[in-house]
Amino acid sequence: MIPLRDTIPSARVPIVNYAIIALNVMVFWHEVSLGPRAEAFVMEYGLVPREFGFDRLLTSMFVHGGWMHLIGNMLYLYIFGDNVEDRMGHVRYVLFYLLCGAAAGITQSLTSPGSSMPMIGASGAIAGVSGAYLLFFPGSRVVTLVPIFIVLQLVEIPAVFFLGLWFVWQLASGVATLGHDVGGVAVWAHVGGFMAGMALGPMFKRRTPVSEI
Hints:
Helix content: 55-70%
Number of helices: 8
Shape: globular
Structural class: mainly alpha
CATH superfamily: Rhomboid-like
Number of strands: 3
Mean pLDDT: 91
Distance between the termini: 28 Å
Largest sheet: 3 strands, antiparallel
Order of helices and strands: EHHHHHHEEHH
CATH architecture: Up-down Bundle
CATH class: Mainly Alpha
Strand order of the largest sheet: 1-2-3
Strand content: 5-15%
Number of domains: 1
Oligomer: single chain
Low-confidence stretches: none
């Protein structure tokens, strides 16, 4: 399933969300330009649990492992981030995003403290955005491209189901990896980010939201 958009339009231009997307793209473009030195760049700015550093909680959010990694993350951020920014306002949204990303990195590090593999990507922070979106817009629907037999169909899936199923899958995958130092997707970062988003979302929500159209 590939999400394309949600059914709730933004009430104003999500300038912070656009800026975060642009920053991720620029960092990745720089990473690609490094050629063979890109691996060293990932090791320097990624979050390595065994060598945990708070500075890397920030930098690791803006480093990605490939074009598909970047595009997938930015697609989710584009779909869900604008509405969350609406509810929080620009400044609160920045702080919320960074805190969720930090919570994601800490969660992943706690579940695999001896790992020497760098954790990179914005997905932990975006998981937090998704958690807040689920709280703020439970009646929303996600327009999704779904393969039905051999034909791709556009289907509106309730956000509660779409994001809820995603979280359950991440949690189940995380439980299955406990005690194993495995590579691939940092699912515990997703779990930690999502839970942080749901916990912090009400604290960052503006008391008087802008009118929806």
